[in-house]
């Protein structure tokens, strides 16, 4: 991702000049100084080209003018829509639209002088997110195809205010990039142990990181998680990350933290209930919930959020083998409840069951949010446009919905209820791990809810089923095709809006 700098407006002598322009009435001077300077320096070439291209500054409109003179390799105009109606989301979208148009340049200057500083920073955020790329395993790419963008200068009248607005946004962008990178890594490279090692990397940002191995988990009684892991040659890990931004590390008094829990199945073959070969490679992204939790912890630490937060990820590989769990096995969860494993492919809920209970026992959090690529059924329900949101608490649910809307990570609330819960009845154990095809995402959530302990008092909990939103099948406004990092910005926003200070 390119370096971002905020500078005073001045025409660059080379590279790309980007002109975010509003849908302006004739002769409106809004955000127009650098445009006019560029026009003067190129003998009116910029204006002539925009006129010829019928560029009106409408939202989503763009126009590239090649080598207009004055040393510029290109001028890119991007439409902002009606002046005065530019929203943070609009600024991010414009930034995202710019990225693919300038990645072949080494340097670009974006003329954001007419935008308030926070929107200038929002533009940088959109650009940064859209310009993310994962090319660790490309060795043969042609020089001309490689992205070259190293530095983007955002010209703004108030560089100090823009920089201040950018600080937390950069932390969020870094968190998203980390989440995406973890998800993008192939499953041979990133198993549970390797991912735990990457979590350790957060220590340098001031996050406390604790890693549990199978020995500790056996001692604790994580029978459900260990059952999933037992078919793999790779050992499971649970990572507990703590960011103590409210109490300070060890010094202040620790209040009840907020808690985030992620499903980290580094590869999901289905186990003995094996998945069909077609598309199975996609199941490397079955750790996207965990990736989002790690990215979130990085974002919180990166902006020194004034909150005590716990992030917990359950890392396992779900494989078939001679030691694998069988359909029909009964496992004992950390909560003491027993589960008949009807389908070894419904493994995410088994991993989360132990973590949810453990998280409450150990931290007594203010609330818990879990993120998981939990069911294919949620893609049938909501497609790729919304994550499924399940919650036992209206306030928490509404806050999550609002935060998601604000950052372009939409969630849709789904129902819970006793009638669905009945589908989990087992003939031999306290419950079975699947509830049949009807309402598959809901019965999965019901299963999780059995591991939310409200006996000692209310425990607000929300579950985000991100199976449809964690991986983009095509380029999105703020993410190239591939891992989206869904959840990082949403939960960072949730914390910032309601749980800090
Ligand atoms: N990881 C999958 C869910 C999934 C499917 C994520 C497609 C992303 C894309 C999960 O572990 C799973 O296999 N769920 C089963 C549950 C079923 C056996 C009750 C499913 O959705 O088919
Ligand atoms: Mn599965
Ligand atoms: Zn899975």
Strand content: 15-25%
Spans where pLDDT lies below 50 across 5 or more residues = none
Instruction: Give the overall shape.
Output: elongated
What is the straight-line distance between the termini? 31 Å
Provide the residue-averaged pLDDT: 96
Helical amount among residues, as a percent range? 25-40%
Helix- and strand-based class?
A: alpha/beta
Question: How would you describe what is shown here?
Answer:
The protein is of the alpha/beta class and 501 residues long. It folds into two domains: 3-157, Leucine Aminopeptidase, subunit E, domain 1 (3-Layer(aba) Sandwich), CATH 3.40.220; 171-498, Aminopeptidase, CATH 3.40.630. It is built from 15 helices and 19 strands. The strands form four sheets. The protein has an eight-stranded mixed sheet with strand order 7-8-10-9-13-17-14-15, sandwiched between helices. The chain has a six-stranded mixed sheet with strand order 1-6-5-2-4-3, sandwiched between helices. Strand 14, helix 12 and strand 15 form a beta-alpha-beta unit. Helix 5 packs antiparallel against helix 9 (288-302) and helix 9 packs across helix 15. The structure holds ligand BES, manganese (II) ion and zinc ion. Zinc ion is lined by residues 265, 268, 286, 347-348. The site of manganese (II) ion has 4 residues, from loops.
